Amino acid sequence: MQENFINVGAIRTRYLSEGSGGTPIVFVHGGTIGDVSSASNAEDFEPLIAEIGKDRLAIAVDRLGQGYTDNPSEDEVIGWTMKGSVQHFIAFLEELGKGPYHLVGHSRGGYVVTRTTLERPDLVASLTIGDSNTVAPGGARNEGIHLRNPHKPGTREAMEFTTNAYYFSPETLSSASIDKKLEILATPKIRKAIARMGPGGYRVKHFLPDLAKDREELFMRLANEPLQRRVQILWAYNDPTAPIEMGYSLFELIAKHQPRTSIQIVNQSGHSLYRERFENFIRVLKDHLEGVTDGC
């Protein structure tokens, strides 16, 4: 597996890649810039990249300000919002120049890939959305989990508490994965992002209000116009942060105008379906990729 860096405008962007040929697939992780609780990054998808990379080019990217991708400029407010994350991702796909791509987004990454498909269908071959309470109608429950966490944010104990709450089988998240997340949280640029987004900062002033408006606009558009590519929704039945009802609501919203929409529900898995039920996830994802043709 290769670690790569590419300049997307002024942003040095990291991505992992494996394989070659075929229509490329790009995995997009969740989390939020400046979030001390998760440290989501491209390495979350390493097993998926290794497996899918046997048949085609597989890529996972660190989103703007997350993982080892640069932070946005401190005075560029839009870069600290989901809108900025979407814009950076679209620019990343353009800079790679290998499209169209199969897009797979987990959690908040599901919002990024859905927005990309809506705004730039020319860059997209197919869309897969996984357990995203950001793109699905309804209210998320993850904030309640973090509020109940008795440990200091950014510590191993805090991350283990979150894992126990998010996962059906917490042992699925390896100690090495937690080590990587703690390593990322300790980097100077992530510490700066946490300070920028922290109490009284950009999270409450810009990120959350902007996301609320963008979600309303997204739901209105999905209710009245089709996503122009085939859509697969993958949802964990036991996800405590995104109840199964949210997955059904998302399916109904998209399927109304896009008949080539499917939903797969997987039992006995928490939020990280791609990790907890890896074989199931790979099987349905490959079936989806093999069934995709150009066009609508």
UniProtKB/TrEMBL annotation:
The keyword Hydrolase applies. Residues 24-273 form the AB hydrolase-1 domain. The keyword DNA-binding does not apply. It holds the Pfam family Abhydrolase_1. SUPFAM superfamilies: alpha/beta-Hydrolases. This is Alpha/beta fold hydrolase. Keywords: Hydrolase, Plasmid. Gene3D superfamilies: alpha/beta hydrolase. It comes from the Bacteria. One of its GO terms (molecular function) is hydrolase activity.
